[in-house]
Amino acid sequence: MSDKRDIRSFSYEQLRHEMEALGEKPFRADQIFDWLHNKKVSDYSSMTNLSANLRGLLSEKYEIYETVPVKVLVSSIDGTRKYVHRLNDGNVIETVLLRYDYGYTACISSQAGCRMGCRFCASTIDGLARNLTAGEMAGQVYSVEKDTKERVSHVVVMGSGEPLDNFDNFTDFIELISDSRGAGLSGRNITASTCGIVPRMIELADRRYALTLAVSLHAATDEKRRRLMPVAERYSIDELLDACRYYFDKTGRRITFEYSLIEGENDGEEDVEGLIRIARSVNSHVNLIPVNPIRERPFRATAPAAAAVLKNKLEKNHINVTIRREMGRDISASCGQLRRSFLKECAGDQNA
Ligand code: SAH
């Protein structure tokens, strides 16, 4: 990683402060913020209303941490685009661009790798490489916009990494991407997914951002959840649900429970009953996700017919529920698998 700070991570106020410290006029901060977060350029030479002197000074003091697309796969079924982005220190991360009727959604990563250890997830197999900066999270959005010339209207933080394990950079990112001087995304159009780090969920609730919190539940009892998600050793489902209710009370935003359907593991009669009890106890919506099998683990998805029966049961009990539609089925899979296959390809090249 560079020892220069990432200028794209600075809030507008921070940028004002930095310019002041450099003895520059405050409006320079407006210009730079506009270049970085409105015009979304990724090099100083494009900032044509700044003097060559100031551009030189900026590049000496700060870096614009890059997010360079090094691989792009496009689905011929639904137009989903999957990107591998290279960072300035050579780490690579995944970003996905999904096309919906209402606009484009970018699914971004919050860390390179992950240390949460969920058993069914490919992103965590090699552990955490490093946290992403706020600018690198925004950079993923800007990069896919530049590539497609389409505006991203929604962001979901559901790529690799645990956003609440990178809390300060993640919240800086939320503030940055919602700033009306820049991308100006409404909090209502942002969803962040967490495996359930309870104290951080409380802290996030206290910030009162309008964003939707998706909580990875995946099991209805502590015992089962612990088998799938190490984070469940630290926080019980009861503690998790208290945090969910607190989040709703503070923000008025309904919680989304994510529940990956794994055949024979969490899709039985008792599991459904437990899930109904949980979903009833919180103002929530349940998103059922047939698990995406990964090579390294034995898990298989619940069959579509059985998943539909399960969904029906939830509906009969007045639970808001959807089954996640699979997108980009033809272009490699989800959740860290593209990054892993890319890294393997690179390792193969070096050995060749
Ligand atoms: N760290 C965050 C974001 C992770 S990815 C979290 O845990 O919520 C977003 C969602 O995809 C999470 O619900 C995660 O549990 C789920 N997921 C990960 N691997 C999966 C797989 N192979 N199949 C289905 N869902 C998966």
Describe what you observe in this structure.
The protein is α/β, with parallel strands linked by helices. 37% of the residues lie in helices and 20% in strands. It contains 11 helices and 14 strands. The strands form 3 sheets. Strands 3-4-5-6-9-10-11-12-13-14 form a 10-stranded mixed sheet, sandwiched between helices. It is globular. The mean pLDDT is 94. S-adenosyl-L-homocysteine binds at residues 116, 118, 120-121, 158, 162, 193-195, 216, 258, 260, 289, 291-292, 294, 335. S-adenosyl-L-homocysteine is lined by residues 116, 118, 120-121, 158, 162, 193-195, 216, 258, 260, 289, 291-292, 294, 335.
**Gyration radius from CA atoms, angstroms:** 21 Å
Q: Proportion of β residues?
A: 15-25%
Could you say which overall geometry the principal axes of the C-alpha atoms support? globular
Span from first to last CA? Answer: 27 Å
Q: Give the neighbour order of strands across the main sheet.
A: 3-4-5-6-9-10-11-12-13-14
State the helix count.
11
Bound small molecules, by name, code or SMILES, are: S-adenosyl-L-homocysteine
- SS-derived structural category: alpha/beta
Helix-strand pattern, N to C? EHHHEEEEEEEHEHEHEHHEHEHEH
Total count of strands = 14
Q: What ranges have pLDDT less than 50 throughout 5 or more consecutive residues? A: none
Largest sheet: 10 strands, mixed
**How much helical structure, as a percent, in the residues?**
25-40%
Q: pLDDT average, as an integer?
A: 94
